[in-house]
């Protein structure tokens, strides 16, 4: 028998039962939600860097996608045609330009990701000359006065985040300042040989070989007393910095050392009388390897030292020294010359062979090649060769201010071409400026392309030094010049000029008023992120990052 229903009210239903079922809530369709991030990334890949920066202000999704490293890598490679920041010196990966793959992959740490967006910003600032300028304060260099203000320039070296500055002023104990983020260091260069009360630093050279220890820097310092010192610098630990040894040069007839290059264990010095000395610094000892001299080369000069592995003997190391200098042209003019010297650990009797021979002196020159800007062909010449000779003859100079090379490009900076005219004793000597044409004035630098083909046989082509173009600027006479990795930087009276020799672009950076008041002269150096300028006692850092 069924129970009768109670008169009480029924509880409310938990859900509403309808025939149509639940109605979904429709989301508003917006421009941001309608596109997937993969589609936005594909669209952004067709934009240039200006539109990519403008797209970041649309919304948060666009800002996140526009900062993708893949986009900026493609823009960096397409705009600057390089896979790294340019301008650095010394050891860069492998010497043959190839990337080393880790084998096995689990045995080595993965490489650090590259900040392509930051690299693009730095490279673009180099191209446009936009930088921040800061003066180093701290009494690094003593003020100069009188003629000393424009005499011997100071010495500057850049090694990563470390800046090495050495004064060329004479003192009882010259000092070298190592400036870094951790702690600054001061190296004292005391002499161990009988010397006058004061002496000065004539040249410094930084080791360009791969560091054996993390952060270890080797520095060679040459003194006017005829000796050189080797320091082992630890930038992160100043207490561990040591003075390796002090060597007194026995042959004082070679003159005073004015330039040096260092690739451990090979140390090469160049004197003011154009005498090259090669030293072997292996096993923490100094051994003089060879002396070379020349009577047909004149300053100014520059040297670059690199290594290469020849194909017939891939395990034998060969050093290549490229020396640029001034060549005299009868009766009063000068031109440009370049000499390549190949130095092997075992010299060979045949200059065209790289096969090492036993019982030979290590670190000696076994092959030399020379190329000149003014090339006079032998025998009968046709009209084309005569025209080329006339063009080369028109680029001769009365004075050369500086020469620099990076192994591929050679830059020649003319000096102020003045000549004295005879006059009576009452009026005194007068100086008149010689009229110059475009390309021979101090405002026109000469750019040459250096071709050094590999010597594989006796039929290998000879080296060539081909004129490329003029580099025009408004900074007046060049006081100092630096060239590395296809980038040339010059110091003028009121500005710094920057040339990208690969792309053909140029820019200028105005100097602060304090440096303009110092007058002429000065020293300049740069790496991939900054430029260091020194004039008198003023040191400025121009940063592009």
The CATH topology of the largest domain turns out to be: Methylamine Dehydrogenase, Chain H
Strand content: 35-45%
The CATH C-level name of the largest domain is Mainly Beta
* Record field, number of beta strands: 30
Helix percent reads: 10-25%
Given the structure, what is the number of helices?
7
The CATH homologous superfamily of the largest domain is termed YVTN repeat-like/Quinoprotein amine dehydrogenase
Mean pLDDT: 81
Please indicate the count of domains.
Answer: 2
GO biological process, one term: SCF-dependent proteasomal ubiquitin-dependent protein catabolic process
Region (Disordered): 91-112
Organism: Mycena chlorophos
Protein name: F-box domain-containing protein
Task: Considering the chains and any ligands shown, give keywords for the structure.
single chain; about 550 residues; mainly beta; Methylamine Dehydrogenase, Chain H; four-stranded antiparallel beta sheet; 7 helices; 30 strands; globular; F-box domain-containing protein; F-box-like_dom_sf; F-box_dom
Give the structure's gist in a few sentences.
The chain has 545 residues and is mainly β.
């Amino acid at each position: 028998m069924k129970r009768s229903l109670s008169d009480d009210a029924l509880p409310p239903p938990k859900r509403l039962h309808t025939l149509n079922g639940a109605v979904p809530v429709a989301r508003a369709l917006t421009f941001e939600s309608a596109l997937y991030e993969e589609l936005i990334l594909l669209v952004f890949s067709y934009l240039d860097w200006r539109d990519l920066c403008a797209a970041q202000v649309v919304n948060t999704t666009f800002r996140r996608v526009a900062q993708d490293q893949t986009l900026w890598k493609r823009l960096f490679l397409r705009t600057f045609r390089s896979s790294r920041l340019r301008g650095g010196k010394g050891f860069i990966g492998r010497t043959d330009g190839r990337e080393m793959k880790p084998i096995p992959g689990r045995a080595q740490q993965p490489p650090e990701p590259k900040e392509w967006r930051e690299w693009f910003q730095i490279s673009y600032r180099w191209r446009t000359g936009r930088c921040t300028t800061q003066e180093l304060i701290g009494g690094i260099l003593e003020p100069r006065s009188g003629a000393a203000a424009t005499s011997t320039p100071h010495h500057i070296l850049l090694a990563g985040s470390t800046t090495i500055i050495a004064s060329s002023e004479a003192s009882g104990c010259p000092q070298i300042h190592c400036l870094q983020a951790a702690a600054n260091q001061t190296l004292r260069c005391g002499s161990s040989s009988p010397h006058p009360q004061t002496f000065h630093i004539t040249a410094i050279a930084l080791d360009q070989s791969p560091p054996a220890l993390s952060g270890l820097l080797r520095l060679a310092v040459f003194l006017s007393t005829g000796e050189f010192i080797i320091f082992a610098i630890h930038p992160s630990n100043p207490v561990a910095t040591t003075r390796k040894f002090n060597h007194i040069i026995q042959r004082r007839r070679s003159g005073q050392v004015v330039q040096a290059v260092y690739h451990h264990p090979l140390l090469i010095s160049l004197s003011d009388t154009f005498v090259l000395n090669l030293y072997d610094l292996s096993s923490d000892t100094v051994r003089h390897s060879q002396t070379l001299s020349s009577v047909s080369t004149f300053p100014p000069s520059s040297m670059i030292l690199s290594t290469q592995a020849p194909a017939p003997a891939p395990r034998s190391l060969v050093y290549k020294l490229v020396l640029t200098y001034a060549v005299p042209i009868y009766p009063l003019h000068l031109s440009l010359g370049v000499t390549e010297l190949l130095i092997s650990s075992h010299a060979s009797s045949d200059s065209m062979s790289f096969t090492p021979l036993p019982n030979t002196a290590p670190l000696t020159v076994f092959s030399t090649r020379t190329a000149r800007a003014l090339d006079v062909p032998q025998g009968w010449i046709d009209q084309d060769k005569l025209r080329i000779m006339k063009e080369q003859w028109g680029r001769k100079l009365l004075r050369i201010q500086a020469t620099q090379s990076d192994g591929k490009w050679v830059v020649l900076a003319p000096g102020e071409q003045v000549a004295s005219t005879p006059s009576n004793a009452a009026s005194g000597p007068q100086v008149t400026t010689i009229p110059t044409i475009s390309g021979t004035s101090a405002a026109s630098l000469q750019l040459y392309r250096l071709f050094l083909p590999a010597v594989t046989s006796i039929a290998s082509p000879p080296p060539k030094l081909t004129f490329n173009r003029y580099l025009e600027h408004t900074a007046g006479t060049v006081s100092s010049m630096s060239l590395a990795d296809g980038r040339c930087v010059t110091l003028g009276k009121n500005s710094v000029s920057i040339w990208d020799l690969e792309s053909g672009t140029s820019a200028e950076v105005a100097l602060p008023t304090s440096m303009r008041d110092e007058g002429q002269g000065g020293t300049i150096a740069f790496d991939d992120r900054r430029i260091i300028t020194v004039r008198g006692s003023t040191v400025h850092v121009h940063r592009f990052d």
